[in-house]
């Protein structure tokens, strides 16, 4: 590998490392969710518009179908009036023919509106599928974001703890603990010694005070006399 390729590889690796540090996965996910929600709003607006068109064209188809039936009924009534002698045959047939023409035109328009309504309904169904897919994706990403945030907090705390542990000087810590233990043991020994001294001093004072008070403690001369008697010197 040439020196230029090596330099390029190193530079590329450093660039990726910088980008990785700059890119916060949590913020990127939140932005992605916001973008998806915008897409969802646009898709829902389109869906509402297409559904509205489907409803209007379906209504027009039904109206044209009813109008065609009404023209046919009127043509029949004209022929009935002609048969009953209420209308001139030529006039009745002319009007009946015009009613039938209107009926055919309305029927044709009804078919056209019905076909257009069907196309709009199919498009609405496709848009509804896309809307449902985007909704599901947004819900999935939001749940993933909750998990990602929790993992990020745990990872940051764990990294901080491990970094602190790794930075601790074990030998220095042990030496400091040993020094502290030695100091504590020394303080405990001094405390015990001072306690014994306090007890001893208190006993001597008690004896002296008792002797001066003329209590049951024997005087020095009496004790000396008894000791001479035991030794046969009295």
How would you characterize the overall build of this protein?
With 234 residues, this protein is an all-alpha fold. It folds into two domains: 166 residues, Orthogonal Bundle (Helix Hairpins); 54 residues. The protein is 90% helix and 0% strand. Helix 2 packs antiparallel against helix 3. The N and C termini lie far apart (118 Å).
Short description:
Helices cover 90% and strands 0% of the residues.
Characteristic key phrases:
234 residues, mainly alpha, Helix Hairpins, 2 domains, 5 helices
SSE blueprint:
Elements: H1 3-22, H2 25-83, H3 89-166, H4 170-212, H5 220-230
CATH topology annotation of the largest domain: Helix Hairpins
- What share of the residues lie within helices? over 70%
In the CATH scheme, the class of the largest domain would be Mainly Alpha
Number of domains: 2
Let me know the average pLDDT.
80
Strand content: under 5%
């Amino acid at each position: 590998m040439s020196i230029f390729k090596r330099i390029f590889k190193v530079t590329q690796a450093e660039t990726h490392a910088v980008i990785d540090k700059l890119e916060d996965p949590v913020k990127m996910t939140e932005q992605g969710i916001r973008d998806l929600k915008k897409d969802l709003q646009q898709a829902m607006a389109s869906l509402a518009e297409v559904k509205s068109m489907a409803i209007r064209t379906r209504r027009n188809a039904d109206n044209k179908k009813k109008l065609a039936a009404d023209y046919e009924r009127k043509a029949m009534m004209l022929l009935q009036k002609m048969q009953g002698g209420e209308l001139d045959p030529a006039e009745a047939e002319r009007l009946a023919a015009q009613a039938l023409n209107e009926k055919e035109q309305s029927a044709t328009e009804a078919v056209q509106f019905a076909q257009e309504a069907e196309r709009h309904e199919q498009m609405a169904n496709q848009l509804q599928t896309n809307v449902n897919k985007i909704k599901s994706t947004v819900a999935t990403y939001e749940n993933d974001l909750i998990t990602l945030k929790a993992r990020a907090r745990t990872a940051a705390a764990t990294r901080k703890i491990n970094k602190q542990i790794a930075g601790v000087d074990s030998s220095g810590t042990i030496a400091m603990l040993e020094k502290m233990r030695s100091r504590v043991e020394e303080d405990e020994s001094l405390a015990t010694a001072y306690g014994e001294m306090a007890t001893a001093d208190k006993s001597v004072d008690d004896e002296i005070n008792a002797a001066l008070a003329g209590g049951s403690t024997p005087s020095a001369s009496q004790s000396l006399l008894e000791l001479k008697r035991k030794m046969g010197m009295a």
